[in-house]
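Hi, here's the filled form for the chain we discussed.

Project: internal
Contact: R.S.
Residues: 119
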Amino acid sequence: QVQLVESGGGLVQPGGSLRLSCAASGSTYGIYAMAWYRQAPAKERELVAVVQRDGATEYADSVKGRFTISRNVPVNTLTLQMSGLKAEDTAVYYCNEQVGTPGHLMTYWGKGTLVIVSS
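And the returned structure, exactly as it came back:
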């Protein structure tokens, strides 16, 4: 079974930086993509950034140029480097992993780490 454990959340001032990490354990065979999602209070969970199996990355428009997603394959960790943080980035950030092939994907979630951007 896949287990995802996020870390690195906390309180940061506007304009500051934060680095989130996700440690993945269990089978790493057949990983299709890994991603970061976030859910702000009273809002739906949204995709922040994703890295595909081939290394291709995609970002939400709201974080482009400020956030960088990366994956360390040998140790199976996922990182989200966040800079230029804004109050609207405040949310619980979740690590996500999809295993399998399109049409036959299994999705796993971490429990999340809270990021608060406030002065």
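Let me know if anything looks off before we file it.
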